[in-house]
Amino acid sequence: MAIVKDGKVKHLEVILKISERCNINCTYCYVFNMGNTLAADSAPVISLDTVASLREFFERSVVENEIEVIQVDFHGGEPLMMKKERFNRMCEILREGNYGRSRLVLALQTNGILIDNEWISIFEKHQIHVSVSIDGPKHINDRYRLDRKGKSTYEGTVNGLRMLQNAWTQGRLSGEPGILSVANAKANGEEIYRHFTKELKCQRFDFLIPDDQHADSIDVEGIGRFLNEALDAWFADGQPKIFIRIFNTYLGTMLNNQFSRVLGMSANVESAYAFTVTADGQLRVDDTLRSTSDQIFSAIGHVSELTLARVLESPNVKEYLSLSSELPDACCGCVWSKICHGGRLVNRFSRANRFHNKTVFCLSMRLFLSRAASHLIAAGVSEETIIENIQK
Prior knowledge:
This protein has 15 helices and 12 strands. The protein has about 400 residues and is an alpha/beta fold. Strands 9-8-7-5-4-3-1-10-11-12 form a 10-stranded mixed beta sheet. A two-stranded antiparallel sheet has the order 2-6. The protein is globular.
């Protein structure tokens, strides 16, 4: 179980739901289209009083613990549906906090459609790291990512991405804009990889495993094939500047068991915590778990009343950390268990057995991890090195 050692926290992250509404309607969206009505029942936009309460929560947290990094991820819905003036003031409120020696990082996940020069100036002013959601070329992206009138979102998203890239090239943004893309069993992984790297000129992106659960109908072989097609293309390119988080994380672990683990992907990420704060100021665990409608995602309390110590002692967080650190029984004996660790909790969920299952994407991950190991061996890494690292 991840614990605070000697009062030191390496990373405290909050996914802040600043807008509980969206301007598009992705069919796979865990916020709006997977059976949970929390977002629709919530206030559409976070209040500045709630933002101030979050700042005070952080200020109390740095008194309790030595925290290296505090990260706030502006999320939705679509976060850019907040008016620019309020968004700017929200950032000012967070930047005005007294966080001692802690470093504050601001990030934002957007579909990119609403980005314009004024937004770019706000991102520049507050040093916000921006990532754009897109699933590939137009014929792939528009299978699932349409607006509320059923029209394409591709052109608008690409236009927003281009504006961000131009601003980064000009030195206005502190980090290169990235892409988040959902792995698609009906698409070709190499085609998506080539589109991102060749057409969109993106060097930092990630493939997200879908948020499906045991009750869903899933093409697990298709997801494994997609990842392997993209992985093969990545190795064939041999471009070290191209960073794909899911690939770098798992291959890094095979090469070195001390490799830096990643929240939301690796098990036992020591002294690192990520929580969700909804627009009403209620703090909860991992945001993707809302789609389970399970009691674990119930509110822990309002940020105005919480301390980090109280959050970590709450039954929901204790159970979440315990589940994240314990290997499901069905995974015992699997050669990949120390890396995959049963998979993401949302992918382990069933109504009958809650989170005490292996991931529904077990076969997908075994196909992918086996291919990744084969690539490393072909590149000259000894099989003994890989085995030693995946067993520790």
